[in-house]
Design brief:
The protein has 105 residues and is of the alpha+beta class. The protein is built from 4 helices and 3 strands.
Length: 105
């Protein structure tokens, strides 16, 4: 099994993103970004998409994904037991929206 790499809680976000690209079992690189964005945080799909696209454009341009592709990966990760629903919130349009967070690995 490959060695796992972790960033300290005091490290900047970029260190956490870098550590996420080196581990988390068999996650695809795009899934690692999603996991890292949700680790210790609660985001709606809209917030997750916005943050994913911003992160990918700055740090991982080849991992840029469409909003639908990001949501599809999030669904897969939920089904794989990597994410959970942390509660309910509202979308920008005021509609009910699930709030997602990462489960501890």
């Amino acid at each position: 099994m490959s060695e796992l790499f972790f960033a300290r809680t005091s490290d900047p976000d970029t260190s956490h993103l870098a550590a996420a690209t080196l581990n988390h079992f068999n996650m695809k690189p795009a899934e690692k970004i999603i996991y890292n964005l949700l680790e210790g945080r609660n985001l709606t799909d809209e917030q997750l998409v916005d943050e994913y696209q911003e992160t990918a454009s700055l740090l991982f341009p080849k991992l840029q994904r469409s909003p639908q592709a990001i949501r599809t990966l999030r669904v897969k990760m939920y089904r794989d037991g990597l994410l959970k629903v942390a509660g309910m919130g509202k979308s920008r349009a005021g509609n009910p929206a699930r709030i997602w967070t990462a489960l501890e690995l």
